[in-house]
């Protein structure tokens, strides 16, 4: 059975159809990428999956449950985490605090319960220690030790993108939506990100849905690719199949070159 499935998804804004009858299914633990020119509807699909927009029609099925109509928080509780094109972090909080906020859906006692005021033996304190341990593992994994206590607002752009990835990982997602994760990164940061995305698939056993303009990256790490143009599906397949499709070359690759 498919882990995640989108069927006949459509949405319009002010009479303009942004996404038209898009369907695709994603198996567990694969990297599934969505490509297409700007304005083709990629981020709109992510916004529908994560509950920010409600589709006009269609279903989004995760592990057998239709999640259309659920709030973003309830969707996150079902194991769907997300990063954004424009970084959505708390810039006046430290890296550690931002990652701890990613743990909120797993916390019984609130995000910052002041647990330590009640003594280290309390269940709230034990819970906070356990959450901090998970966050420490993510800090190690993404090589963020040197900036762990720094305010996010003062970090270089590439590092902030990594912190946002870390916060999404802190949710322990079954499905991770990455929206333009390499945007604004330099070549070296992109190469590192490539490795991290593959490692997330391997170590965290997450299914990854990826929107990305860097075609080299897409073709190098994707198990399957869906190409779109103007809200519609052009083709879905392996990197080789998508790359050689004439409509893709015309609509997307032609734009890049």
Strand percentage, roughly? 15-25%
State the total count of DSSP E strands.
10
Poorly predicted regions: 113-118
The strand order across the widest sheet is 6-7-8-3-9-10
Q: How much helicity do the residues have?
A: 25-40%
What form results from the Cα inertia axes? globular
What integer value in Å does the Rg equal?
19 Å
The assigned structural class equals alpha/beta
* Terminus-to-terminus distance: 39 Å
Q: Number of helical runs?
A: 9
List the secondary-structure elements in sequence, H or E: EEEHEEHEHHHEHEHEEHH
Largest sheet: 6 strands, mixed
Write down the overall mean pLDDT. 86
Q: What does the model show?
A:
This protein is of the alpha/beta class and 257 residues long. Helices cover 37% and strands 23% of the residues. It is built from nine helices and ten strands. The strands form two sheets. A six-stranded mixed sheet has the order 6-7-8-3-9-10, sandwiched between helices. A hairpin with a 2-residue loop joins strand 4 (57-62) and strand 5 (65-66). The radius of gyration is 19 Å and the shape is globular. It starts with a strand and ends with a helix. Mean pLDDT is 86; it is low at 113-118.
């Amino acid at each position: 059975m498919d882990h995640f499935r989108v069927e006949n998804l459509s949405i319009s804004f002010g009479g303009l159809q942004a996404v038209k009858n898009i369907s695709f299914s994603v198996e567990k633990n694969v990297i599934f990428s969505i490509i297409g020119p700007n304005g083709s509807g990629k981020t709109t699909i992510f916004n529908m999956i994560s509950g920010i927009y409600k589709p006009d029609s269609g279903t989004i099925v995760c592990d057998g449950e239709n999640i259309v109509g659920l709030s973003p928080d309830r969707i996150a509780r079902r194991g769907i985490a997300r990063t954004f094109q424009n970084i959505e972090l708390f810039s006046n909080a430290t890296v550690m605090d931002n990652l701890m906020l990613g743990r909120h859906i797993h916390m019984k006692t609130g995000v910052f319960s002041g647990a330590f005021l009640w003594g280290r033996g309390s269940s709230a304190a034990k819970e906070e220690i356990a959450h901090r341990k998970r966050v420490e593992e993510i800090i190690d994994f993404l090589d963020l030790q040197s900036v762990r206590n720094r305010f996010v607002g003062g970090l270089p752009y590439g590092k902030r993108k990594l912190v946002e990835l870390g916060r999404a990982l802190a949710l322990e997602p079954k499905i991770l939506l990455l929206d333009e994760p390499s945007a604004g990164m330099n070549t070296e940061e992109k190469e590192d990100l490539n490795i991290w995305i593959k490692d997330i698939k391997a170590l965290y056993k997450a299914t990854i849905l990826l929107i990305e303009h860097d075609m080299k990256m897409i073709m190098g790490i994707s198990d399957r690719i869906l190409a779109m143009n103007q809200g519609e599906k052009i083709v879905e397949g392996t990197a080789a199949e998508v790359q050689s499709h004439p409509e893709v070359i015309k609509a997307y690759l032609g734009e890049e070159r």
